[in-house]
């Protein structure tokens, strides 16, 4: 059955790119509500934004959704990944500004707080998107694909010239809480040489060595080093799960990303939903529901770093 939180939870911090203070409250919602953002600082006009793929702008460094009135919320991917990875299907997310707080740069603080608060089962079945045939998008930099598969799974590959990252690949089945155990604590990352360039463009103004992994050649500049030897590719998978959550329902299929990013995953969802015969909506039986991200996960499975 569909779920929501038992009670509201609040997070406070700063936006990664804006540097502005931000406060987010995730509130329970009824069945069939889905995930919506509400800009509580916007007092006139439409301040509601659906967390759906066709509301997303294609931006390279974060995921931003915008409504018809031009009201937007950015850097939603870690929060969306946490909702998908803990199996929360319905929520109203109130936010007092244009960007979700970055917290520690991962999804772990969201995940830990959601599981500590607890989930409530609702009187409606979970529906999922079953991939029926492969769809693929590519650019000069990389490519992404969705293929049929009985359970949600993911493979990702990255290649950076900095030796601290280098070439990394990982494959994972997203069932039985594997997102919580293996991906949720992996932080966003960047190269030192890119920081000044981003800040000159008005980006990464809230970034620190504590909320992002910063590398320079073969050195990791962030205190404490890496949480995982392959933390970078794990974080790319975390981002991809958050971006795929904009499909509006769990996806039964296999995602592959090769040097893919936010825009490419959004293009992939567009391809899925506009390709005739590429998918169908299914009502999940108990066996399928047990293999969706978040099914059966408990608080003790959150990595201790959170």
Automatic annotation (TrEMBL):
<comment type="function">
    <text>Catalyzes the hydrolysis of UDP-3-O-myristoyl-N-acetylglucosamine to form UDP-3-O-myristoylglucosamine and acetate, the committed step in lipid A biosynthesis.</text>
</comment>
<keyword id="KW-0479">Metal-binding</keyword>
<dbReference type="GO" id="GO:0009245">
    <property type="term" value="P:lipid A biosynthetic process"/>
</dbReference>
<feature type="binding site">
    <location>
        <position position="235"/>
    </location>
    <ligand>
        <name>Zn(2+)</name>
    </ligand>
</feature>
<feature type="binding site">
    <location>
        <position position="239"/>
    </location>
    <ligand>
        <name>Zn(2+)</name>
    </ligand>
</feature>
<keyword id="KW-0443">Lipid metabolism</keyword>
<dbReference type="GO" id="GO:0046872">
    <property type="term" value="F:metal ion binding"/>
</dbReference>
<feature type="active site" description="Proton donor">
    <location>
        <position position="262"/>
    </location>
</feature>
<feature type="binding site">
    <location>
        <position position="78"/>
    </location>
    <ligand>
        <name>Zn(2+)</name>
    </ligand>
</feature>
<dbReference type="GO" id="GO:0103117">
    <property type="term" value="F:UDP-3-O-acyl-N-acetylglucosamine deacetylase activity"/>
</dbReference>
<keyword id="KW-0444">Lipid biosynthesis</keyword>
<comment type="similarity">
    <text>Belongs to the LpxC family.</text>
</comment>
<dbReference type="InterPro" id="IPR020568">
    <property type="entry name" value="Ribosomal_Su5_D2-typ_SF"/>
</dbReference>
<comment type="pathway">
    <text>Glycolipid biosynthesis; lipid IV(A) biosynthesis; lipid IV(A) from (3R)-3-hydroxytetradecanoyl-[acyl-carrier-protein] and UDP-N-acetyl-alpha-D-glucosamine: step 2/6.</text>
</comment>
<dbReference type="InterPro" id="IPR004463">
    <property type="entry name" value="UDP-acyl_GlcNac_deAcase"/>
</dbReference>
<keyword id="KW-0862">Zinc</keyword>
<keyword id="KW-0378">Hydrolase</keyword>
<dbReference type="Pfam" id="PF03331">
    <property type="entry name" value="LpxC"/>
</dbReference>
<protein>
    <recommendedName>
        <fullName>UDP-3-O-acyl-N-acetylglucosamine deacetylase</fullName>
        <ecNumber>3.5.1.108</ecNumber>
    </recommendedName>
</protein>
<dbReference type="InterPro" id="IPR015870">
    <property type="entry name" value="UDP-acyl_N-AcGlcN_deAcase_N"/>
</dbReference>
<keyword id="KW-0441">Lipid A biosynthesis</keyword>
<dbReference type="GO" id="GO:0016020">
    <property type="term" value="C:membrane"/>
</dbReference>
<dbReference type="InterPro" id="IPR011334">
    <property type="entry name" value="UDP-acyl_GlcNac_deAcase_C"/>
</dbReference>
């Amino acid at each position: 059955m569909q779920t929501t939180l038992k009670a509201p939870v609040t997070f406070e911090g700063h936006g990664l790119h804006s540097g502005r203070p931000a406060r987010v409250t995730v509130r329970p919602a009824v069945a069939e509500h889905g995930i919506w953002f509400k800009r509580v600082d916007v007092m006139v006009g439409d301040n509601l934004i659906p967390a759906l793929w066709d509301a997303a702008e294609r931006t390279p460094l974060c995921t931003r959704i915008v409504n018809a009135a031009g009201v937007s919320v950015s850097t939603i991917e870690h929060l969306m990944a946490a909702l998908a990875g803990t199996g929360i299907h319905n929520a109203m997310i109130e936010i007092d500004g244009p960007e979700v707080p970055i917290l520690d740069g991962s999804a772990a603080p969201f995940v830990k707080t959601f599981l500590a608060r607890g989930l409530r089962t609702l009187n409606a079945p979970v529906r999922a998107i079953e991939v029926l045939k492969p769809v693929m998008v590519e650019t000069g930099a990389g490519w992404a694909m969705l293929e049929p598969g009985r359970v949600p799974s993911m493979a990702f590959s990255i290649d950076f010239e900095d030796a601290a990252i280098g070439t990394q690949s990982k494959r994972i089945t997203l069932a039985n809480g594997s997102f919580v155990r293996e991906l949720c604590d992996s932080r966003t990352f960047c190269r030192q040489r890119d920081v000044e360039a981003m800040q000159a463009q008005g980006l990464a103004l809230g970034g620190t060595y504590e909320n992002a992994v910063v590398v320079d050649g073969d050195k990791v500049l962030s205190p404490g080093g890496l949480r995982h030897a392959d933390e970078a590719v794990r974080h790319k998978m975390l981002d991809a799960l958050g971006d795929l959550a904009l499909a509006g329902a769990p996806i039964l299929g296999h995602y592959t990303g090769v040097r893919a990013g936010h825009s490419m995953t959004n293009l992939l969802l567009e391809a899925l939903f506009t390709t005739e015969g590429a998918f169908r909506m299914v009502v999940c039986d108990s066996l399928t529901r047990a293999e969706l991200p978040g099914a059966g996960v408990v608080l003790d499975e959150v990595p201790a770093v959170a």
